[in-house]
Structures are given as C-alpha cells and as structure tokens.
What we know:
Helix content: over 70%
Order of helices and strands: HEEHHHHHHHHHHH
Strand content: under 5%
Number of strands: 2
Mean pLDDT: 87
Structural class: mainly alpha
Oligomer: single chain
Strand order of the largest sheet: 1-2
Number of domains: 1
Amino acid sequence: MEAVRGLAVLATALAAGAAWVMLPRFLALIERAGFVRENFRGEFVPAAAGAGIAIVYAAALMLVLALQGALSRVGQAETWGRATLALLVASLGLALVGLIDDVLGDRSATGLRGHLARLRDGVLTTGALKALFGGVTGLAASALASSGAVDVVINALLISLSANAFNLLDLRPGRAAKGFFLMVAVLWAAVPRSPVWAYVAPLAAVTAVYVPYDLRAKAMLGDTGSNLLGGAVGVAAAVSLSGLARTALLSLLVALHVYAERGSLTELIERVTPLRWLDRWGRE
Length: 284
C-alpha cells in the first residue's frame, strides 16, 4: 500500500506540473484552430477544454500502470492494475464520445427522449451516439473493476449515468468541476482507505489547475471534460462502495435523470439557497 501511495504522490505531482505548463498552451491551440463556442455571456471561448485534462490524466494513469507493473514483478506493490485500467478505459472512452458531441453535435434534439425519438426516425444524433457508446464504455470499465454479473450491470449503469449526470450539470462555469470535487470528498469521507483515491488524485490535481479558466468563463469544459469527470467518479464509486451504497447512489442518479428530462437543474439549483451559493462561489 505504501508503494501505491508513493506512485500516487509522484503521478499527482507530475500531472499537476504538466497541466500547469500545458493547459494554457492547449487552450491557445484550440482558439487558433477556431474551435470556439459562445458561452452563457455571449463571449466566444475555447471549447472542449476537457480534452487537455483527459490527455494529461491518461498519461498519468499510464505512468502509474507502468511503474505499478514494474514494482509488482519484484513484489514491492499491491496490484490494483484492474482498477487503474478501468479508470483509463472510462476516462479515454467517455472523453472521446464527449469530444465527438462537442465537435459534431448540432443540438437539434435535447434530452434522452429527444435523441431516442430521432433515432427511431432513423436519424443518428451525437447525443444518441453518446448514450450508446457511453453505455458500452461503462460496461467495459465495469467488467474490469467488478466481480460477478450483477456487479457488472450495476457498476456499468453507475459509471454511464454518473458521466451523463456531470454532462447535465455543465451548464454554468465551474459547476461540473465543483460537482466533481464535492462527490470525491463525499466518497473519500465514506471510504477513506480505498486505494482508488491514489488513482483519482492526479485527475483532481489537473482539474484544480483548470478550474480558474472555467470559473472566469475563459474556456468550456465541454462534454469531453464533463464525461471524463463523471466517469471517474462512477468508477471510484464502483470499486470502493458497498453493494447497498452503490444501489442507493444509482437510484439517486436515475432520479436525477428523470427530473432533468422533465425540469431544469439550473432552476432547481437557483431555488435551493446552499446550492445557489455553491454554484455562484468563485464565479466572475
């Protein structure tokens, strides 16, 4: 376990440093390429900034996998490679399908029902593609991190719905990132000794470096980033929580999606004082 913690510290420090150097340049690259989108203030800013987070985090996880494999061969580390691989699959897979939606999405249909209705008419929207491929990615990550058929199904739903829940949140600057840190804090408080936090820590570090850009509405996380953050939370919950806790969290996610299909999460947040304060905190 000490070796795992050592790897986590190394990977987190390297990821934070890489993000500090790379993210400003990556955002400038996006802007030069003309991939900008109008934010809620009417300003055009770099879109799909979450791709930069995904690149740095994936590199950190690959480094952890490589070092972990080397240490395990000489008996110096516990092997948590499957959980690390599940995070890598979920991160890259969900970020990729989010990027497709960021680049090609036409917003002609909204909500899961809208995308499924278009699919029944023979029209494949990026939202429907995201739902289908996101489900497959969640299943693949779950298969790596689960034991038993029931666990695979529950965890696949947990990962996929968690990713989409963060997508639903990402309508105001900083909201998805705040949701990520809040969920990580809650899960860590519930199961502080789970080794999974060693692999989530680099993502938290990279996201912390990015957050100021998001809060100042200078960049958009995009579906790329929100899928990544939500998927990581889903994997963390899948590998650390008890069966009862996972079922309870899955029920909450289903309820959230049902509400979002019929109402507005932004209006709900504005009506609840603590949520409104948290949502506006740090935003310019």
